[in-house]
Amino acid sequence: MKRRVPRMNEQESAAWLGLTTVFSLLPAALDRQLQRDSGMTHFEFVVLSRLQLSDGPTMRMTALAEATVSTLPRLSHVCGRLEKRGLITRAPCPEDRRATNVGLTSAGRRELIRSVPGHIATARRLVIDALTPEQLDALAEITGTIAARLAEEPPEGTPAAQPTAVEPRRRT
């Protein structure tokens, strides 16, 4: 039985349903692997990774929230857990006492480094190795296009742009 999304043709439905299925299954698989091997969630891994890749020794919570596509309350909760485990530090920002800086500890850096091989192996097993080089190129192009479109979306809390009529795509 073929499923079809209302107001989408078969091609559009297949692409959309495939993408939403990956959205559901991949994060859960990454979480399972990281929990099993490193005792952390995928989001915790992303937070530690962003801190590792930051330009300085710390990042402001607001910048880290933006980098991890997270809300400040969610990030604050996760940072509380990471701080209790000794993986990060939080301190008031010297330039703006209302802001909080987050830094990766030596223990956090070691834990991140230990978790990377299993995480990369899982990414390879589930995604990279399943695709041909041509499919990887197509995936990179597709995800880049979608990411650029998503980056154009107004930030949460600002009025959304009014929808405009879109010409149907013509087959060539």
From TrEMBL:
Pfam families: MarR. Residues 149-172 are annotated as: Disordered. InterPro entries: HTH_MarR-typ, MarR/SlyA-like, WH-like_DNA-bd_sf, WH_DNA-bd_sf. It comes from the Bacteria. Residues 1-148 form the HTH marR-type domain. PANTHER family: MARR FAMILY REGULATORY PROTEIN, TRANSCRIPTIONAL REGULATOR, MARR FAMILY. This is MarR family winged helix-turn-helix transcriptional regulator. It comes from Promicromonospora alba.
